[in-house]
């Protein structure tokens, strides 16, 4: 068996770090420069006219709060393995975000977080990350369905029969999952999953749900405030219904983190177009949301990637 020298391992790790960070920055630059729908002169002019110091502080604070709540979520969940500080949780969340930037649906985040722990704990870390992402997805679906129903009542995107059909399908899926919970596939079953979830203390689940709700309200209202700053005057409930619908539909589509703004932007253009909002305003806001909540944290996360020292043995 060929053994790899310590220096060779260090060089390989350095190359991987540089590839991750270099790839992240390349994709960010490429998406911002190559988007033909973005008129940067118009964008800068509008920002100078609309964005005051207090507005800027508010938007940046919501950006910080969005990611900070995610850091608290991770610190809370990983406490079932060991207690970590907010600083350690920030390093793991932001570093893994950078690693997952150009992987489908942020899959790289799972591997990124696992590398901060012993190899024996990999499955547990991946499971905890699934819980963290899972609660966010469940909340997106719940808020999204109510938002979509409210929006549909105003604009009739789909027929009443289609709505009833969708609910019928959901009920059938839940019934099938309930009766199939004991069926095992490669050693895994829904019953086993429920048992694993029950092993985690209830107060950790409750805190996870609370932080998840807080995070959802923060980034959805950040979206809302940006529309107000860009001069979009639509009643609160209708605008929030459109926002929750966009997040629900966009999150259901497989995509890469670096393309997130393009997917959400395309869906948003359709929904807000029905309300008469200019396409370029929707695209700018979607791009700005992506920049604030994905690009900025990824740039900070690149520092942790470059200074990462694996605990794997």
What does this structure look like?
The protein has helices at residues 6-34, 40-50, 53-78, 86-99, 108-114, 122-155, 160-179, 190-199, 202-229, 236-251, 260-274, 279-306. The protein has one domain. It is mainly α and 313 residues long. The protein starts with 5 loop residues before the first helix and ends in a 7-residue tail after the last helix. The protein is globular.
List the helices and strands and how they pair.
Blueprint: H1 6-34, H2 40-50, H3 53-78, H4 86-99, H5 108-114, H6 122-155, H7 160-179, H8 190-199, H9 202-229, H10 236-251, H11 260-274, H12 279-306
Question: What is shown here, in short?
Answer:
The chain is mainly α and 313 residues long. The chain has twelve helices and no strands. The chain has helices at 6-34, 40-50, 53-78, 86-99, 108-114, 122-155, 160-179, 190-199, 202-229, 236-251, 260-274, 279-306.
Tags for this model:
mainly alpha
Average residue-wise pLDDT: 78
Number of strands: 0
- Return the domain count: 1
Return the string of H and E elements: HHHHHHHHHHHH
Low-pLDDT regions: none
Largest sheet: none
Share of β-strand residues = under 5%
């Amino acid at each position: 068996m060929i053994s790899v020298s310590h220096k060779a391992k260090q060089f390989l790790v350095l190359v991987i770090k540089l590839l991750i960070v270099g790839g992240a920055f390349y994709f960010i630059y490429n998406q911002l420069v190559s988007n033909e729908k973005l008129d940067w002169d118009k964008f800068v002019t509008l920002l100078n006219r609309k964005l005051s110091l207090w507005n800027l502080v508010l938007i940046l604070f919501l950006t910080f709060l969005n990611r900070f709540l995610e850091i608290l979520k991770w610190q809370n969940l990983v406490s079932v393995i060991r207690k970590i500080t907010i600083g350690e949780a920030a390093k793991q969340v932001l570093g893994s975000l950078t690693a997952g930037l150009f992987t489908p649906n942020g899959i790289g985040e799972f591997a990124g977080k696992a590398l901060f722990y012993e190899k024996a704990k990999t499955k547990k870390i991946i499971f905890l990350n699934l819980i963290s992402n899972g609660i966010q997805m469940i909340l997106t679906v719940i808020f999204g369905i109510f938002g979509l129903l409210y929006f549909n009542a105003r604009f009739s995107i789909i027929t009443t029969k289609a709505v009833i059909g969708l609910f019928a399908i959901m009920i059938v899926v839940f019934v099938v999952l309930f009766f199939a919970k004991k069926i095992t596939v490669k050693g895994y079953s829904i019953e086993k999953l429920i048992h694993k979830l029950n092993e985690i203390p209830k107060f950790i689940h409750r805190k996870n749900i609370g932080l998840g709700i807080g995070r959802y309200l923060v980034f959805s209202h950040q979206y809302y405030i940006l529309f107000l700053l860009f001069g979009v005057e639509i009643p609160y409930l209708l605008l929030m219904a459109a926002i929750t619908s966009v997040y629900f539909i966009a999150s259901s589509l497989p995509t890469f983190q670096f393309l997130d703004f393009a997917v959400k932007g395309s869906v948003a253009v359709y929904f807000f177009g029905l309300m008469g909002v200019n396409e370029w305003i929707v695209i700018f806001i979607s791009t700005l949301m992506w920049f604030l909540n994905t690009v900025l944290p990824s740039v900070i996360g690149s520092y942790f990637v470059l200074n990462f020292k694996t605990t794997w043995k």
